[in-house]
Amino acid sequence: MGIDLERLKQRIPLLEYLQKHNWNPRRVVASHEFVGLCPLHPESRPSFYVNARKNVFYCHGCGRGGDLIRFVQLFLDLPFRQSVAHLEQGLESASLLPLLNHAHAFYQLQFHRHPEAARYLQQRGLRDPAIIEELGIGYAPGGNLRRHLTGMGYSFDLLLHAGLIDHHGRDAFCRRVIFPCREHGGIVNFYGRSIGAAFPHRLLPRSKGGLFAWDSVRFFSTVILVEGLFDLAVLWQAGFRNTTCGIGTHLTPPQLAQLSEEPGRQICIVFDQDENQAGQLAAHQLARHLVGTGVSVRAVQLAAGYDPNSYFVAGATAADFTECLRRAPRL
Q1: CATH number of the domain that 286 lies in?
Q2: Whole-angstrom Cα distance, residue 204 to residue 138?
Q3: Which of 226, 284, 324, 329 is packed most tightly, with the most Cβ within 10 A?
Q4: Among candidate residues 209, 208, 206, the one with its CA nearest the CA of residue 184
Q5: Average pLDDT, whole number, for the chain?
Q6: Where are the alpha helices (DSSP H) in 38-128?
Q7: Which residues contact 319 (CB under 8 A, 6 or more apart)?
Q8: Contact partners, residue 304, CB within 8 Å, separation at least 6
Q9: DSSP H helical ranges for 163-313
Q10: Of 76, 94, 116, which residue sits at a domain end?
């Protein structure tokens, strides 16, 4: 196991991992060391050092140091084995990236060939072609994905391993509108929403990755967090571009780390207003966790029974939603 761990750390240089997670260092003159603000605690003067040759870090402010795996443990609050699994999943996602890019291009092409996909989006209140294109929304009609990708040289076993097809070779996302989930510019997953009678939600059977479209919203001082991708899409369409999505109410440690990476950020949680109070309860549980990390949290309440998507479909305007944000209590 030790050899495997060393290989893992060699394949993912610590400095490269940190920079992908938005650490901005400067080189210490004439050395292999880099210094920047510590990602593990708030500080105003850089005290976090990385030795790129030895692949280790040490912070003179909080006194913590170690290798890549130790950093992931501290940064994402994960035990050792889960930290290793997180890094291995990242490597797997990188190896599957060309396949997922080709599958996404296929789904986007099918979207323009099958009008039922656009009709479904219109029913869900999403009508702006520019937003549809920016989000990279596609469509899986079913029946020809396997033939298309094997024709490009991908094996049946690889498509099956990725979760794009089932054991019979059928498209796993058949008759679903497809949202590509990106992380650091690369596709790491697909979310499929059924337009028929099948189970509504489907993801590839691997890590979800981070928050949806986080690279587009992470520099906002106020971030709106919603449950679903159609909630996000209609809010972007209405001008609320500081909206992100965890695809559900139970956020992963990497997603929680993203939300709380900037102390002082304000998070407006807009979960479904369920009759059984499930969405409201999840929002308050999440809020308690986030407040403990130093961010400010507001719980936004819509009319009973609504989520942001259905709220706008029912005729609400951007001004109505802005008023909901204004009235939201700070937790």
Answers
A1: 3.40.1360.10
A2: 15
A3: 226
A4: 209
A5: 91
A6: 68-76, 80-113, 115-123
A7: none
A8: 273, 275
A9: 214-217, 229-237, 253-259, 278-291, 308-313
A10: 76
- Say if residues 93 and 186 touch (Cβ distance below 8 Å): yes
Contact between 226 and 271 under an 8 Å Cβ cutoff? The reply is: yes
Same domain, 68 and 98: no
- The predicted model gives 150-164 an average pLDDT of 93
Tell which of 13, 44, 76 closes a domain. 76
Closest CA to 164 of 137, 135, 192: 192
Q: Residue 290 CB: number of other CB atoms within 10 A? A: 21
Residues 6+ apart with CB under 8 A from 254: 76, 86, 209, 210
Helix (H) or strand (E) holding 225: strand 222-226
Tell me the C-alpha to C-alpha distance, in Å, between residue 244 and each of 61, 174, 195, 213, 250: 32, 26, 23, 6, 14
208 belongs to a structural domain: no
| Residue numbers of the domain that contains 307 | 214-327
Stated pTM of the model: 0.81
Instruction: Say how far apart CA 56 and CA 315 lie, in whole Å.
Output: 55
- Establish if 209 belongs to a structural domain: no
Residue 1 has pLDDT above 60, yes or no: no
For residues 86 and 72, is the Cβ–Cβ distance under 8 A? Answer: yes
Q: Is 314 helix (H, G, I), strand (E, B) or coil?
A: coil
Do 197 and 219 belong together in one domain?
no
> Which residue(s) pair with 202 in the sheet?
192
Q: What are phi and psi of 167, to 5 degrees?
A: -65, -20
- pLDDT tens, residue by residue, 10-35: 888 999 899 988 899 999 987 899 99
What φ, ψ does residue 83 adopt, rounded to 5°? -65, -45
Q: Which two tokens stand for residue 190?
A: 């697909």
Structure tokens at 21: 């997670």
